[in-house]
Amino acid sequence: MTKGKFLTVEGVEGVGKSSNMDFICDLLERNHIPTVTTREPGGTFCGERIREILLDKRVLDLSPVAELSLLFAARAQHVYEVIKPALDKGSWVVCDRFTDSTYAYQGGGRQLSMQLIAAVEALTLDGFRPDYTLLLDLDVAEGLNRAANVGEKDRFESENVAFFDRVRSTFLERAGQSTRTTVISAAPPLQEVQAQIRVWLATMGVNDAS
Questions:
Q1: What whole-number distance in Å separates Cα of residue 128 and Cα of residue 79?
Q2: How far apart are CA 203 and CA 199, in angstroms?
Q3: Which residues are registered as beta bridge partners of 167?
Q4: Long-range contacts of 171-176 (CB under 8 A, 24+ apart)
């Protein structure tokens, strides 16, 4: 049995990750590729409980290191319980956020040491990384404006513009250092963004099949 591929979708608030993940999964399924869709933080019973804590605006005094530890605890369980078993069965896993988001939000946004994050990553994931990453990039002000129309802000979405500027910069910096990451602008109309996603998927042998 051929092992599956692990795809992650990243970006700041308002880039349209959910809509574009639906588009990606639809193309995979039309190519008869078994697909598992999941998200971070979350994806498991334990992970979803941790997600509730991390996104709850009532959690006012969570230290950045505690936040980092919770994220990697959820991620370790996610990889163990969901992602690796699915890949081993030949499914492709499409995940809304993964470790790149931790470097961007906790490293860039919270300004935690990148060396600390790398050490925790090494301890909990033992070198496990996505095969392909799609970074949807968008001006922070535009992204926050789009996100504001979706619903009530969570704990992360309530951060200021400077926080998200650092997040975006870190995403782009990491993308420039990684051959697995493709950057696509989320600024154009959705149809144009998805045309670029089709090109990205075609590099993996996924065509616009009917």
A1: 9
A2: 7
A3: none
A4: 171/10, 171/11, 171/12, 171/100, 171/104, 171/108, 171/135, 171/137, 172/135, 172/137, 174/100, 174/103, 174/104, 175/133, 175/135
- Cα 170 to Cα 150: distance, rounded to the nearest angstrom: 25
Which residues are within 8 A (CB) of 87 and not within 5 positions of it... i.e. 6 or more apart? 3, 4, 5, 6, 93
Classify the phi-psi angles of 205: left when phi > 0, otherwise alpha if psi is within -120 to 50, otherwise beta: left
Backbone angles phi and psi of 95, in degrees to 5: -120, 130
> Which residues of 52-171 form beta strands (DSSP E)?
92-96, 132-137
Identify the residue whose tokens are 């619903």: 151
d(CA 24, CA 194): 9
Single-letter residue type at 153 = K
- CA distances 144 to 14, 17, 129, 149, Å, are 6, 14, 28, 9
The answer to whether the predicted template modeling score (pTM) of the entire model surpasses 0.85 is yes
Q: Which residue has the tokens 């144009």?
A: 192
pLDDT digits (tens, 9 = 90+) for 126-176: 999 999 999 999 999 998 888 877 767 777 877 889 999 999 999 999 999
In 3-state terms, the chain is what percent helix, strand and coil (to 5)?
A: 55, 10, 35
Place of tokens 């996104």: 55
**Residue corresponding to tokens 């699915």:** 86
Nearest CA-CA partner of 38 in 5, 71, 7, 69? 7
What phi and psi, each to the nearest 5 degrees, are found at residue 94? Answer: -115, 115
